[in-house]
From TrEMBL:
InterPro entries: Flavoprotein-like_sf, FMN_Rdtase-like_dom, ISF_SsuE-like. Residues 1-109 form the NADPH-dependent FMN reductase-like domain. This is Multimeric flavodoxin WrbA. Keywords: Flavoprotein, FMN.
Length: 206
């Protein structure tokens, strides 16, 4: 089993990066494997709505997302984080999320009927991490919601949404004991969820 951490901040070792890594630390406390992607290291263009992915569920756009799709598909769970940039996720995070459109399936005749590919091949799990500078949650805007709604749409059950408020400078989050602890606990819960799934899989049901 493998959990993939995905960081959508441009600041390496910044607040989002630290929190995502803390979640992975929680996962590793239970001995599960982790992998890690720092999104700005990759050239990820936005989805252009060509709809060619609706045949075969593969995106045809030739950029670095083609390196990331196999990592996403291999992972049993993801931890995805973004800082707030004007009430929403960063540009690179939004491009990444939009490119998950290839994993969304629609009924040919009724587009109000849809599901995530993972609902067909096996549900996956996720933790989201959102960070913002202001103290009030409303100033985080849609950051957390954009992350969780998008990955739910492609078939992940989100087991925790971490929201760190009032964090500004790079690395400030290291002074926030409660948030760091929350991140580790979320990682441990993710690991325990996957272990429970394995246990149930090996149990004869009825
Ligand atoms: C372009 C830009 C827009 C921002 N917009 C917001 C905002 O709307 N609300 C907020 O609370 N913080 C905002 N921030 C502050 C960042 O979310 C905050 O500094 C965060 O800790 C950065 O996380 P990082 O270290 O993971 O990059 C903004 C920062 C930048 C650079």
């Amino acid at each position: 089993m493998e959990i993939l951490g995905i960081v959508g901040s441009y600041r390496k070792s910044g607040n989002t990066d630290i929190l995502v890594q803390k979640v992975l630390e929680g996962v590793m406390n239970y001995g599960l494997d982790t992998n890690y992607i720092f999104l700005p290291d990759f050239n990820i263009k936005d989805c252009t709505g060509c709809e060619r992915c609706k045949v075969g569920f593969k995106c045809v756009k030739k950029d670095d997302m083609q390196k990331l799709y196999p990592l996403i598909e291999k992972a049993d769970a993801i931890v995805i984080g973004s800082p707030t940039y004007f009430y929403n996720v960063t540009g690179v995070t939004k491009n990444f999320l939009n490119r998950l459109y290839c994993y969304e399936i629609f009924d040919e005749n009724d587009r109000s009927v849809w599901m995530g590919l993972n609902e067909v091949i096996g549900i996956k799990y996720a933790v989201t991490v959102a960070v913002c500078e202001q103290e009030r949650e409303e100033d985080m805007g849609y950051t957390s919601l954009t992350l969780s709604k998008t990955i739910e749409a492609v078939g992940y059950r989100v087991i925790d949404n971490i929201k760190a408020l009032h964090v500004y400078s790079k690395g400030d989050i290291l002074n926030y004991e409660d948030e760091l602890k929350h991140a580790i606990l979320a990682g441990e819960k993710l690991a325990k969820t996957l272990m429970l799934r394995e246990k149930v899989k090996s149990t004869k049901i009825i």
